[in-house]
Amino acid sequence: MLVEEFLAPKILIVSGKGGVGKTTVAAALALVAARSGRKVCLAEVDRKGTLPRLFGGRELNYKPAQLAPGVWGMNIVPEDALGEYLEVQYRMKRVSKVFSSTHFVDYITTAAPGLKDILVLGKIWYLEQGRQGGRSPQDFDTIIVDAPAAGHMLTFLSAPMGLSDALRVGPVRRQSDWLVEMLRDPARSRVHLVTLPEEMPVSETIETSEAITHKIGLNPGAVFANAVYQPLLTTSEVSALDEVMSDNDPRELRIRAAEVALRLDGEDLEALVGYARFLEARRSIQTKHLRALKRGVQDPVLELPFLFSAGLALPDIETLADVMEEKVAAL
């Protein structure tokens, strides 16, 4: 598959169970899109503040700020979205700040559950339409939404459907219908899920994928299996290490190490073999869960490598973007 085809919808929504690395995957996807010449908006909606740390930039706010060449980031919060809505739709610029205070938004969203999600999705609609609407002068080619974790994501994405069903007529009903059309149109939006090759995340991802398609009628994209251990040694190499250690005569291994300027003692060799065995065991467990994932979803599963980094930063995101491009090209 061509990268252009993979990125065809303007809105790419990325979600997954908390802790699986969905923000990291969203950031890598943004770099892939930017490399293809697109102007990308990477929107955070949960106030975590992870994106600036990944790109080494400052804290994001409601106004898009450039994070990397071709990539802008922003934080969509309901308070600012409500202020912009009142200003654009009803020309209430003077009072929009009063009505969009945190306390007021909390008050009205308690009375109308789901309204916060509607406000956030409304801003995404404005971005898609290229509306100048107040505070977003850029016209983006691709909008990547770092959506809430999977537990809230289904509620988040189905909020316009609930409001559209509840209201018969009026401007709010009409605007809810616009959001429903945006989310359900395969030419406009797609939902990518992120998981880890572990039992609980895989099980939840399979359930979420089913719900996305059959319960709320959205368009599934790829499933990214994140943090997959790559083969360090072949099976024969592990067996050779086992044989060397069982004979208690690791001289050949020491000689080979010395050839590359490594000096290994007995403890080093035991640690090396132990680590190789650990990785093989972990990879074996992950392989079992990856098989279950591929059986449970109909969408393509793209495996991303585990990165042995103390803290992820832009070079790591670039590495994931490289792998992502290779995996997409192989589809």
Protein model, in words:
The protein is an alpha/beta fold and 331 residues long. Helices cover 56% and strands 14% of the residues. The protein contains 14 helices and 8 strands. The chain has helices at 3-6, 22-35, 50-55, 78-90, 93-99, 102-111, 115-129, 150-166, 171-184, 199-214, 235-246, 251-259, 266-296, 314-329, and strands at 11-16, 40-44, 65-68, 71-75, 142-146, 189-195, 220-228, 301-305. An 8-stranded mixed β-sheet has the order 3-4-2-5-1-6-7-8, sandwiched between helices. It is elongated. The chain starts with a helix and ends with a helix. The model has no long low-confidence stretch (mean pLDDT 83).
Helix content: 55-70%
Q: Averaged pLDDT, please?
A: 83
Strand composition percent: 5-15%
Write the element-wise H/E pattern from the N-terminal end onward.
HEHEHEEHHHHEHHEHEHHHEH
Rg from alpha-carbon coordinates: 24 Å
Estimated structural class: alpha/beta
Largest sheet: 8 strands, mixed
Low-confidence stretches are: none
Contiguous helical run count: 14
For the termini, the CA-CA separation is 5 Å
Number of DSSP strand runs: 8
Strand order of the largest sheet: 3-4-2-5-1-6-7-8
Shape field: elongated
